[in-house]
Specification:
The complex is a heterodimer of chains A (502) and B (326). Chain A is mainly alpha-helical. Chain B has one domain: MetI-like fold (Orthogonal Bundle). Chain B has twelve helices and no strands. The radius of gyration of chain B is 24 Å and the shape is globular. Classes of the chains: A mainly alpha (502), B mainly alpha (326). Chain A: Keywords: Cell membrane, Membrane, Transmembrane, Transmembrane helix, Transport.
Chain lengths: 502, 326
């Protein structure tokens, strides 16, 4: 194992070295770095050209410049860009902006994509499966920049306009209800009668829901309130218990339900703390939640202690998330007023010079993150859905799954314990690759939404024929790709004992 | 090669009054492909886009049936709004007609249908060049390193590793910035020259497993030359993988080219491509949304139809495939 890692590291180092040379030469050859100055008509033209040539060492041949860059990089100096700004500072800012943008999007895409993929595999050849497959193909074929501009127009500008008078017109409610019914119907298996009933139920639920949201003008001043938090928490308790332990055991179910009730009550009890907390306090609350839930699961779980702890912790975190969401939504009206009624933003990472309490600041980031995240999620969601569907189908047809069924295990145990865990193995590799990819930033997304992240640094450097920022960008992304590839290999061997690293 | 059903004797199928048709591998694949409804729809859609774009404004000096050019400016008619109408009169629309400028006009009065068609042509050409070049190079590298192994493989695969470490958009952007102005043919070839590594890896895997098969051993025992084994014995067995991967490369190349042109690093004005059109008119979303809609619709149509064709081909070439999906 250690020999494998060491060998891989050495090879990767040389691979990376060769790649830096190729990128450096290609960037340096891609255009004329003095182009803008040549069209300059100011009297200092000659001086400016001389300055920049000096800074970029344009008098030296490209391979020599590369060696000089390499030497300085090895000593930890990334150099300056053509305007004399320090690359290390630019890189640090760009990296933090990019991570902010892509981390949430990737995690969300993985979670939703894997769930949708698995459900569509378990319901193979159902209406839901066909719809998801088709939607995934459409997402594969969408040009990201086009979607991004569309989102800006319809999800930001038009949505903000609509928020001034958030009433959903009745034809739209009918359409949404129809959609809800179709989703319910497509997810149900069985004969036509059962599916029709499911369709009717879905139609009624979504119709009533959207009518209430529209009549109460919920979108103008949203929030969940204690009853809804409690209801969602209890539902999640039942769901997580059904997944981890099965509903036939009382212990885990009671533990999870208790966690949901306690969590919902905390939203009132902790009011003084939650009015304007800090991230440190929120982190403390998360740890406290986990500790309390582990205790509950341990105490009430009985024989299914392990499963109970898992279900309880998940329920606790979910309920906590609901409380957090509720607080954010409550701050929405005041935030919206403070940005002149345009909460969904299309440019940049935050409103310039904006001040507010904890919730308002978070809403501000969320409003800026929403659109670029949606664009990113839309694309990688399709990949995750397809991969997890394929890998789950592969696993469900394995002999050991048939054995598990044959020995009379409940379907839950077969799916969750025997199939799901093994189905996740190929997806971990995909995740590792994806994380490596996203650190490179979403070049296109950043361009459209005006984020000054890694992608922006790269395109700007390329446009200016300035190798220094391009190389800094590549050092980070290249290293990330190499490291994450190796993590993927090691994880794969760890998760699947049939694979040996050598 | 294998037959789908063999009448092994007079008392099996024929005796029960059934006609059993022997099918070749090719026939089976074709049958499976044409039963894949989405793939068939994709094929028809893609054929339509190709015929429309190349026949309407003509190609390489051959005139087309559309009378307006993508270069000449004209007087703006009705603020350049599209005149295409598909809602018949009895439904309250203005009837099914093309009108003078079906896709509208841009801000200086150029017919936007002609412009979109020109962009579509260019994008298709780039995509196919990329796929052809990348497939050829990737197949050669993969085949040689997979068959010869040893030092050849080590060198070629390390080179592949180097290329794969560089994110596709990054190297394509550097290449596009350098060669974008030299026209679509040069751009397509050079993008193809940088995105072959994934194809090489795929093919190497196939060759590694096929070279150990008995038929290759037999060929080697007969003294067949390495070249002949690679091209005559192993390569035909990887045709499925190659075709599927090449098809998906076309779809990805359409998106890659449009993304590059959107970033201003691909096809340069005055020449045009679908991505370049969107880049040019991205601020026109509010005032002239059609300038933004049409190229986007054509990019999606091309990429979606090719993706479906690729999916159909993958199912058709997969011997484990028993059920044909819709």
């Amino acid at each position: 194992m250690i020999v494998f890692i060491a060998r891989r590291l050495v090879i990767s180092f040389f691979v990376l070295l060769a790649a830096t040379f190729i990128i450096y030469v290609l960037t340096a050859l891609s255009g004329d770095p003095l182009e803008d100055l040549r069209q300059d008509n100011s009297p200092q033209k000659a001086q400016k050209i001389a300055d920049r040539s000096e800074r970029m060492q344009l008098d030296l041949p490209i391979p020599v410049r590369y060696l000089d860059w390499l030497g300085r990089t090895v000593r930890g100096d990334l150099g300056v860009n053509r305007d004399g700004q320090d690359i290390a500072t630019i890189l640090a800012d760009a990296l933090s902006a990019t991570l902010q943008l892509v981390l949430a999007a990737t995690v969300l895409a993985i979670t939703v994509g894997v769930i949708v993929g698995i459900v569509s595999a378990l319901r193979q050849y159902s209406g839901f499966d066909y719809t998801v497959t088709f939607a995934a193909f459409v997402c594969f074929s969408l040009p990201l920049f086009w979607v991004a501009v569309m989102l800006k127009q319809y999800m930001a500008i038009e949505f903000n306009n609509w928020l001034k008078n958030p009433v959903i017109p009745y034809p739209v409610i009918a359409l949404l209800a129809l959609l809800g019914g179709l989703i319910f119907g497509a997810l149900t298996t069985g004969d036509r009668k059962r599916r029709l009933i499911a369709f009717a139920v879905g139609f009624a639920i979504s119709g009533v829901l959207f009518t209430i949201l529209s009549v109460t003008r919920w979108f103008a001043d949203p929030g969940l309130g204690l009853p809804l938090i409690l209801a969602f928490g209890l539902a999640s308790a039942v769901g997580f218990t059904a997944l981890s332990a099965g509903l036939q055991y009382r212990g885990p179910l009671y533990a999870a339900l208790a966690a949901a009730v306690i969590g919902a009550m905390c939203s009132e009890l902790l009011n003084p703390l939650l009015i304007d907390p800090t991230w440190l306090e929120i982190g403390g609350l998360v740890l406290l939640t986990v500790a309390v839930c582990v205790g509950l699961g341990y105490g009430l779980g009985g024989l299914q202690r392990r499963q109970a702890i898992i279900a309880t912790v998940l329920t606790g975190l979910f309920t906590g998330g609901m409380v957090f969401l509720d607080r954010m939504l409550q701050a929405f009206a005041s935030y919206s007023a403070s940005v002149r009624g345009r909460p969904i933003s299309t440019i940049g990472a935050r409103t310039p010079n904006y001040t507010g309490d904890f919730w308002q600041l978070n809403l501000d980031s969320a409003g800026h993150l929403l659109l670029p995240s949606m664009a990113l999620i839309l694309i990688s969601l399709a990949t995750y859905t397809r991969y997890s569907r394929a890998s789950m189908l592969e696993v469900m047809n394995q002999d050991y799954v048939r054995t598990a069924r044959a020995k009379g295990l409940p379907e839950r145990t077969v799916v969750v314990k025997h199939a799901f865990r093994n189905g996740l193995i190929p997806i971990t590799t995909l995740m590792a690759f994806d994380f490596a990819g996203v650190i490179g930033g979403a070049v296109v997304t950043e361009t459209v939404f005006g984020w000054r992240g890694m992608g922006f640094m790269f395109t700007k450097g390329l446009e200016e024929v300035d190798p220094a920022p391009v190389m800094a960008f590549f050092l980070v992304t290249g290293t990330a790709i190499v490291v994450f590839n190796m993590i993927a290999d090691i994880l794969y061997a760890y998760l699947d004992p049939r694979i040996r690293l050598s | 090669m294998t037959l789908s059903a063999q009448a092994s004797g007079p008392d099996t199928g024929a005796a029960q009054g059934m006609t059993i048709v022997a099918r070749t591998q090719g026939q089976m694949i074709r049958r499976r492909f044409f039963r894949h409804r989405a793939a068939l729809a994709g094929m028809i859609l893609f054929g339509f886009v190709v015929v429309l774009s190349f026949s309407s404004i003509g190609f390489m000096g051959i005139p087309g049936w559309w009378d307006k050019s993508y270069l000449t400016t004209g007087a703006l008619v009705n603020q350049g709004k599209p005149t295409l109408s598909v809602v018949p009169e009895f439904l309250g629309g203005s009837g099914i007609r093309l009108g003078e400028h079906p896709f509208g006009q841009d801000d200086i009065g150029v017919d936007y249908f002609a412009k979109t068609m020109r962009g579509t042509q260019q994008s298709i050409i780039v995509a196919f060049l990329v796929a052809i070049v990348a497939t050829t190079v990737g197949t050669l590298v993969g085949a040689v390193s997979g068959y010869y192994r040893g030092k050849t493989e080590a060198v070629l695969m390390r080179f592949t590793d180097v290329m794969i470490t560089i994110p596709v958009l990054v190297i394509a952007a550097v290449v596009g910035r350098r060669f974008g102005a030299s026209g679509v043919v040069v751009l397509g070839i050079f993008i193809g020259l940088v995105i072959w590594p994934s194809m090489a890896r795929l093919l190497r895997g196939e060759f590694l497993s096929l070279r150990e098969k008995e038929f290759v051993e037999a060929a080697r025992a007969l003294g067949t030359s390495a070249r002949r084994i690679i091209f005559r014995h192993i390569l035909p067995n990887t045709v499925g993988v190659i075709i599927v991967s090449a098809t998906l490369t076309v779809a990805n190349a359409v998106l890659l080219e449009s993304a590059l042109s959107f970033l201003g690093l691909g096809v340069q004005a005055p020449d045009t491509s679908l991505g370049q059109l969107i880049n040019e008119y991205r601020t026109a979303m509010v005032t002239r949304p059609w300038l933004f809609w049409w190229p986007g619709i054509f990019i999606i149509a091309i990429a979606l139809s090719i993706n479906f064709i690729g999916d159909g081909l993958r199912d058709a070439f997969d011997p484990r495939q028993t059920r044909v999906r819709a």
